[in-house]
Specification:
The complex is a heterodimer of chains A (108) and B (113).
Chain A (H helix, E strand, L loop, with lengths): L2 E5 L2 E5 L4 E8 L3 E9 L6 E6 L5 E4 L2 E5 L3 E6 L8 E9 L2 E4 L3 E6 L1
Parallel strand pairs in A: 2-11
Antiparallel strand pairs in A: 1-3, 3-8, 4-5, 4-9, 6-7, 7-8, 9-10, 9-11
Chain B lengths: L3 E4 L2 E4 L5 E7 L5 E8 L3 E10 L2 E4 L6 E7 L2 E6 L8 E8 L8 E2 L3 E5 L1
Parallel strand pairs in B: 2-11
Antiparallel strand pairs in B: 1-3, 3-8, 4-5, 4-9, 5-6, 7-8, 9-10, 9-11
Classes of the chains: A mainly beta (108), B mainly beta (113).
Chain lengths: 108, 113
């Protein structure tokens, strides 16, 4: 069965303190791995798609990487506005399987 | 929200009553999805559609039905609501055909009393 596990469940950082979020997965026939950001009371917002091992994508302070078994979302010098829940998802066939998310809090 | 609206945004209903949630898109995307989001479970797929009148079940489809009579509208129906269906429901759309990222609506908070 397809599985997506995110760690840690919650992460508290000081502003400027870089860190990484992990997404490990088991899936047959990976079509893509996706990262989303979700703010309280809102729908998830699409950030990145990664298709193959070794691929990297960047957006502002965020950088996503992919291996055959896991993906990392690196956050460099985070700011308080980066506080949100970050969701990882994998696509196999016609459905997408989501992880439970990492709740990130960045303190000023 | 990528041209996606959901209605209603909030609803309180009683156990045993039918409920229909609507998702409307202006992007002309082929794929549409319904998810529910609960604490500790994350987002779980209920049903999805890959074209007008073409739908399929997801991970947690029991107690739910869907219909898609037009490209832009995807309806989720709870035939007889139960308290276990209290949740936040999200609609998502995707262009498909080599581009699988999904774009989400603002959500509907449903409470079944």
């Amino acid at each position: 069965e397809d599985q997506v596990t995110q760690s840690p469940e919650a992460l508290r950082l000081q502003e400027g303190e870089s860190s990484s979020l992990n997404c490990s997965y088991t899936v047959s026939g990976l079509r893509g791995l996706f990262w989303y950001r979700q703010d309280p009371g809102k729908g998830p917002e699409f950030l990145f798609t990664l298709y193959s091992a070794g691929e990297e994508k960047e957006k502002e302070r965020l950088k996503a990487t992919l291996t055959k078994k896991e993906s990392f979302l690196h956050i460099t010098a985070p700011k308080p506005e980066d506080s949100a829940t970050y969701l990882c998802a994998v696509q196999a066939n016609n459905d997408m399987r989501f992880g439970a998310g990492t709740r990130l809090t960045v303190k000023p | 929200d990528a041209g996606i609206t959901q209605s209603p945004r909030h609803k309180v209903t009683e156990t045993g009553t039918p409920v229909t949630l609507r998702c409307h898109q202006t992007e002309n995307h082929r794929y549409m999805y319904w998810y529910r989001q609960d604490p500790g479970h994350g987002l779980r797929l209920i049903h999805y559609s890959y074209g007008v009148k073409d739908t399929d079940k997801g991970e947690v489809s029991d107690g739910y039905s869907v219909s898609r009579s037009k490209t832009e509208d995807f309806l989720l129906t709870l035939e007889s609501a139960t308290s276990s269906q209290t949740s936040v429901y999200f609609c998502a759309i995707s262009p498909g055909t080599g581009s699988y990222e999904q774009y989400f609506g603002p959500g509907t908070r449903l409470t079944v009393t």
